[in-house]
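User: Could you go from structure to sequence for me? I need the amino acid at each position, not a summary. Structure tokens:
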């Protein structure tokens, strides 16, 4: 049969917190904080752990390239987060650099973050997934190497015939062989220009120099 003390121990509620502090903390501050928290009857207080320096800290938005220190503490008597933050402030800590969370809540948040980071595999340095048949076919036309691409042509041919049949191709003057027919006058012959020097020379010799008779 269970004793009254046993039932009392099972029904006792503890107040469990996870305390997160921006940056590093020295042992002197932690020892002083633990001593001040004894007024709430500290059951246990874990060793301080430190996170690596990160680009961003989810618990401290707006802070970049910084790490944090954190530890768990359990009390027999109720201790509210504002009371703990006030004690830390009196010890010289900036209250904005401290976050106090219920231990159960902190565990759930950390678990969700770990699952998300595990599923979010960075693309840099990872292997490419094999191409699908559709991607392979498209790469023949749109591949990165222009010398390996296929020429995209009109691969579709119409099955319909235009009424009236095909129109004969136009014939241009440049398509005809060179000849003497005038392109403007049709079949009229192009006049042959004769030099006037050969005809006028005898007449000039007959009449003499110009101006003399």
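Assistant: Here is the amino acid at each position, in order:
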């Amino acid at each position: 049969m269970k004793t009254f003390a046993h039932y009392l121990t099972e029904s006792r509620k503890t107040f469990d917190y996870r305390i997160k502090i921006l940056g590093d903390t020295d042992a002197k501050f932690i020892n002083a904080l633990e001593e001040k928290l004894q007024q709430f009857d500290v059951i246990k207080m874990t060793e301080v752990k430190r996170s690596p320096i990160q680009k961003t800290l989810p618990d401290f938005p707006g802070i970049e390239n910084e790490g944090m220190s954190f530890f768990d503490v359990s009390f027999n008597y109720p201790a509210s987060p504002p009371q703990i933050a006030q004690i830390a402030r009196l010890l010289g800590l900036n209250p904005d650099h401290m976050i106090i969370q219920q231990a159960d809540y902190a565990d759930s948040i950390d678990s969700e973050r770990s699952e998300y980071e595990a599923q979010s595999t960075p693309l840099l340095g990872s292997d490419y997934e094999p191409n699908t048949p559709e991607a392979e076919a498209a790469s023949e036309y749109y591949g990165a190497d222009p010398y390996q691409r296929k020429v995209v042509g009109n691969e579709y041919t119409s099955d319909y015939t235009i009424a009236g049949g095909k129109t004969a191709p136009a014939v241009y003057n440049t398509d005809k062989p060179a000849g003497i027919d005038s392109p403007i006058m049709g079949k009229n012959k192009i006049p042959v220009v004769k030099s006037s020097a050969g005809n006028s020379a005898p007449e000039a010799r007959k009449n003499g120099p110009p101006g003399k008779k």
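One structural detail worth keeping in mind: Residues 13-119 form a domain with the Alpha-Beta Plaits fold (CATH 3.30.70.260).
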